[in-house]
Write a structure and sequence with these properties.
The radius of gyration is 22 Å and the shape is globular. It is an alpha/beta fold. The chain starts with a strand and ends in an 8-residue tail after the last helix. The chain has helices at about 25-30, 60-65, 65-70, 150-160, 165-185, 205-210, 260-270, 350-360, 385-410, 425-430, 430-435, 455-460, 465-480, 490-500, and strands at about 5-10, 15-20, 20-25, 45-50, 75, 80, 85-90, 110-120, 120-130, 135-140, 195-200, 230-235, 245-250, 275-280, 285-290, 295-300, 320-330, 330-335, 345, 375-380, 380-385, 420-425, 450, 480. The protein binds FE2/S2 (inorganic) cluster.
Length: about 500
């Protein structure tokens, strides 16, 4: 590093060294900080407070923060560069903040807690001080089970044939155990202070972590036999922490709708709202909840991996070299490449943008056919091929059909939805206007809110006042009805209809 500056992060007490002028978004992203609107200066979820050093106030700071907050040192991290040494405090890691940006009132407790979001692809763990609610350390990892299948159905297949379940269970427990040990290695707190751990994940992750037979998930009607709360002593999982921590895997909601969504409902307070709200996780296994305080419906729909850049000819995950945005300038396509270097491929948000731009140019027809039959050139050497558009149609058709049918069963119209929360990383980065243009989320963009990792937020809430939170989970589970979309006689027809792209952009 030729000209280093130091960033001290509170409440972590960690110091990073970065090149002078480096973007704070890039630096903090590596530390597990989320950028809920993808760093577009729209959500203020990335705000930090400067305690020492200085950061100039940007136009976006003025737009999103109050004068009092600015005077108090608050800035948007996604708009800032490290021009000198800084000591900063991260709002996101203070007493947990809910999906709607409000903090929750918690009763301080002694000791430490860990929240884990066990995803099919990635795993995130945070260590919290239960007295202050502050995050003390963060660990992220790729799920090593992925070597035995990228999506939940291939994991189910591996688990149910020839002893694969034991392997996958061991991988999940060993990896999370290592992450827990690494969380403590990153702080000066002792593992024996750990009181409780809350794990959330989809139904397949729940079964694999808890060592439950996956056979019922392998065939029709895909209903788990056992999907409730599972409780372990840390030692039972092979985690040797020297204390007596309790590990809880939160219960699922039914079918393939897991505790990640249960936790998301708690974090978004969907079950308390008067107005009709939806929570959608745009993952490989798309999960959807629709409802309000009176009634809740949930469903899962097999969207496939297109949103993660998989099964796309030049697809890749959202990493350096990925085209993450495509914009139309006149009739020309302008691409934004993550990391700023040469383009290597296309990630999910770029795919949605590319299809939206192709539709606007009439290079892609509403049927999904590429008009002149040749792949759309994005930025050399990256192109969008016919097969890629088809994969996207499958994914967007599954989500849009799932939402339409849930709303129909609820007795509501799409216009009745007041807010659509997008959970998960992809929801942070997707361009809402493009999502509307391709008919994935045909709503005015202001109704669609990226909500960050609601699964992890909900897991953090569950670390405090377990009896109360357990009551809330039981109440949500009692009130929510799981809808098996595969049994809906209209699913096929609606799905085929939703695979088409809208002929025109909606105003
Ligand atoms: S405003 Fe910075 S991530 Fe949204």
């Amino acid at each position: 590093m030729t000209d280093p500056v130091h960033l001290e992060l509170l409440p972590l007490g960690q110091t990073l060294t970065v090149e002078r002028g480096a973007s704070l978004q890039d630096a903090l992203f590596t530390q597990g900080v989320e950028f809920p609107c993808g760093g577009r200066g729209r959500c203020k979820g990335c705000r930090i407070r400067v305690l020492a050093g200085s950061l100039p106030v940007t136009a976006d700071d003025h737009r999103l923060l109050t004068p009092a907050q600015i005077a108090d040192g608050w800035r948007l991290a996604c708009r800032a560069q490290a021009k000198g040494d800084l000591r900063i405090e991260l709002a996101q890691w203070e007493a947990a903040i809910l999906a709607d940006d409000s903090t929750f009132a918690f009763r301080p407790e002694d000791g430490l807690g860990i929240a884990i979001d066990l995803g099919t692809t990635t795993v995130v763990a945070q260590l919290l001080d239960l007295r202050t609610g502050h995050v003390l350390a963060v660990q992220t990892a790729l799920n090593p089970q992925a070597q035995h299948g990228a999506d939940v159905m291939s994991r189910v297949e591996f688990a149910t044939t020839g002893g694969g379940r034991r392997i996958l269970t061991q991988l999940a427990r060993d990896m999370t155990g290592r992450m827990v040990a690494d969380l403590f290695a990153a702080t000066n707190r002792a593992a024996r202070e750990l009181r409780n751990v809350v794990v959330v994940g989809n139904t397949v992750m729940h079964h694999l972590f808890c060592d439950i037979d996956l056979e019922p998930l392998a065939h029709h009607p895909f209903e788990p036999e056992r999907d409730g709360l599972e409780v372990f002593a840390a030692q039972e999982l092979g985690w040797h922490l020297g204390g007596s921590a309790t590990v809880r895997f939160l219960p699922c909601l039914g079918g393939f709708v897991g505790s990640d969504i249960l936790a998301g409902v708690l974090a978004s307070q969907l079950h308390q709202r008067e107005s009709l709200t939806a929570l959608i996780d745009l993952g490989t296994n798309g999960e959807i909840v629709v409802g309000n305080r009176a009634r809740l419906l949930c469903a899962s729909t097999a969207a496939g991996p297109a949103f993660e850049g998989a099964r796309i000819s030049m697809g890749m995950r959202a990493a350096t070299g990925a085209i993450s945005e495509v914009h139309l300038r006149g009739s020309e396509l302008r691409c934004h490449v993550l990391g700023g270097g040469p383009p290597r491929g296309l990630c999910g948000s770029g795919l949605v943008d590319a299809a939206a731009a192709g539709l606007e140019l009439q290079a892609i027809l509403p049927s999904g056919r590429i008009a002149d039959g040749t792949p759309l050139r994005l930025a050399s050497p990256v192109t969008l091929a016919q097969g890629d558009v088809r994969e996207l149609q499958l994914a967007k058709g599954a989500i849009a059909a799932g939402l339409r049918l849930l709303l129909r069963q609820w007795g509501a119209r799409p216009a009745d939805l007041t807010c659509i929360y997008l959970a998960g990383a992809f929801g942070n980065y997707i361009n809402r206007a493009s999502a509307r243009r391709i008919g994935l989320l045909d709503f005015p963009p202001e109704k669609v809110q990226p909500a960050g990792n609601t699964a992890l937020l909900g897991a953090k809430l569950a670390l405090f006042g377990w009896h109360e939170q357990n009551g809330a989970f039981s109440e949500i589970r009692r009130r929510i009805r799981h809808v098996a979309l595969n049994l809906d006689p209209e699913f096929e027809e609606v799905f085929i209809d939703e695979m088409r792209f809208p002929a025109h952009a909606n105003p």
